[in-house]
Amino acid sequence: MHKAIFIPAEGEKADTLVVVFDNLDDVRQKTDRLPWAVDFISSQGWSALGFMAHGATWYRDEAVLDFFDRLKSEKFFDRFRRVVFYGTSMGGYAACAFSAAVPGATVVAINPQATLARKYAAWERRFRPAWHNDFSGRYGFAPDMVETAEKVWLFYDSRIFGDAAHVALFRGDNIEKVKCPFMGHGMLSVWRDMGILKPVVSSCIDGTATRRSIARLMRNRHTSLTYKRAVLAHLQKSKRHRWVIRWADAVMRERRGPVFVKARQEALAAIKAQRGAK
Fold first, then answer.
1. Per-residue pLDDT tens for 192-222?
2. Pairwise CA distance, residues 147 & 173, whole Å
3. Which of 21, 33, 54, 275 is most buried, taking the most CB atoms under 10 A from its CB?
4. Cα 53 to Cα 35: distance, rounded to the nearest angstrom
5. Pair 61, 132: CB distance under 8 Å
6. DSSP 75
7. What are the backbone dihedrals phi and psi of residue 189, each rounded to the nearest 5 degrees, phi first?
8. Would you give the distance in Å from CA 254 to the centre of its chain?
9. pLDDT of the residue at 275
10. For position 121, what pLDDT does the model report?
11. If we measure between CA atoms, which residue out of 230, 268, 273 comes closest to residue 249?
């Protein structure tokens, strides 16, 4: 159910190892591929250890747990000056959980789960196929596993209850929680549209990221059409018609788009209908 591939790098950055994990979207892809993000990691000159999962396993397999124990006992991670665990959603959970194998590591997790154990996350209803997995024991409860990490970057959409609830379970002075409202559970696609995916991830991996530098990069959301459509959808769903008009007008001052034109027309019609009803 799992595969791992180690791709050593050459050059001045080779002593940084980035451990990455598939998420559920990758599970649904073909198996004759490299693990998620390995191409990016290698292109930056870092060494990569990539994990693939062939199902909604959340990596809660004894073979995976044993594998990390073996890497630790064989001092595999000691070869590297810097070790970073990186993943999103299911892979974000794994990045947090398995960071316990390398005290002093850095963690970069996007919308991670803290656990899917019903005892702690009975409110989580999105990942039913993974409920049967055992989230106790070794590398289990992610918030406990990151206690020995040097720095933990948690990026999450604070407007999604499930994602915010998971992140709320993480506590510690080594944790940096970055709210990314309206960017969704798969926010990496929004970051890509914003042109900040590489700068954000790279700066977290190489240790140059700060709260201020990340906040500065996040300002690019105002250039992302994907982000603007997400805000529009929220305003429409909450039936804030006047705010729909304001938002559509603001967007269309920069570029016209049929989605925003239609939304504006529908909001005007809704306001007119409300007035007529009175």
1. 999 999 999 999 999 999 999 999 999 999 8
2. 9
3. 21
4. 9
5. no
6. T
7. -70, -35
8. 30
9. 79
10. 93
11. 268
Q: Is 217 left (phi over 0), alpha (psi -120 to 50) or beta?
A: alpha
The identity of residue 110, as a single letter, is I
pLDDT of amino acid 31: 67
Mean pLDDT of 57-71: 96
Nearest CA to 109 out of 99, 100, 121, 96 is that of: 96
Q: What is the pLDDT of residue 278?
A: 62
Coil, strand or helix at 190: helix
How crowded is the C-beta side of 170, counted as CA atoms within 13 Å? Answer: 34
Three-class DSSP category at 211? helix
- pLDDT (tens digit per residue) in 148-197: 999 999 999 999 999 999 999 999 999 999 999 999 999 999 999 999 99
Using DSSP bridges, classify how beta strands 82-88 and 16-21 pair: parallel, antiparallel or unpaired: parallel
Measured between alpha carbons, how far is 165 from 28 in angstroms, rounded to an integer? 26
Q: Minimal CA–CA distance to 21: which of 67, 73, 85, 79?
A: 85
pTM more than 0.70: yes
In angstroms, rounded to a whole number, what is the distance separating the alpha carbons of residues 232 and 45? 39
- What lies within 8 Å, CB to CB, of 182 at 6+ separation is 157, 159, 221, 227, 230, 231, 234
What is the SS3 assignment for 173?
coil
Distance of CA 165 to the CA centre of its chain: 14
Rounded-to-integer distance, Cα 148 and Cα 161, Å? 27
Neighbours of 20 (CB within 10 A): 26
The angle subtended at Cα 246 by Cα 245 and Cα 247, nearest 5°, is: 95
CB atoms within 10 A of CB 236: 17
Look over the chain and give the mean of its residue pLDDT values, rounded to a whole number. 93
Contact predicate 117/135, CB 8 Å: yes
